[in-house]
Amino acid sequence: MEKIVFYEDRDFQGKSYDCKGDSANLDGYIHRCNSVKVEGGWWVLYERNNYTGYQYVIGPGEYDDYRHWMGFNDCVRSCRIIKNTKGPCKLQLFNRPNFDGKSLEATDSMKSFQEKWPRHEIQSCKVLEGSWIFFEHPNFSGRQYLLEKGEYRHHLEWGALKATVASIRKIMEL
């Protein structure tokens, strides 16, 4: 069963809110978010209402401080459950928009594209199976972008302002 509990203060203190599904607006339940317990499922947290702003992908576990899920601040205004966390994962990456240019197929997480993709620019991609997280820096760090099954003709379609992707991680339910 998917469930996430938001706490206004660090170390699971202060006002809390139990969430069991997608929520486009958390403002009525919490004013800030400094810690989280994920009791089931994989979730993407958004800095702004209506699933916009910075994205933070988190799985089952306890996060006693927003920095432990790589948060930039204590703003979490919307969230949703991630689908396709079981089974195989596969995607095609392209260095040009509209699935053009040099391409690379991936079926596993990659901590760094340095050897295979020197410029770190991914302009478009096709998620053929599973769900993936793109990171702007190597070693799964920096801004995160969730990509679920589908086609993304331009990096703006997955919410990135720049085409910089230096590492990728497939999401697998543990």
TrEMBL record:
Keyword Repeat in annotation: yes
Example GO BP: visual perception
Signal sequence bounds: none
Keyword Repeat: yes
GO MF annotation list: structural constituent of eye lens
Keywords: Eye lens protein, Repeat
InterPro entries: Beta/Gamma-Crystallin, Beta/gamma_crystallin, G_crystallin-like
Residues in Beta/gamma crystallin 'Greek key' domain copies: 2-40, 41-83, 89-129, 130-172
Pfam families hit by this protein: Crystall
PROSITE patterns for this protein: CRYSTALLIN_BETA_GAMMA (PS50915)
Sequence similarity: Belongs to the beta/gamma-crystallin family.
Function text: Crystallins are the dominant structural components of the vertebrate eye lens.
Name of the protein in question: Beta-crystallin S-1
Organism this protein belongs to: Collichthys lucidus
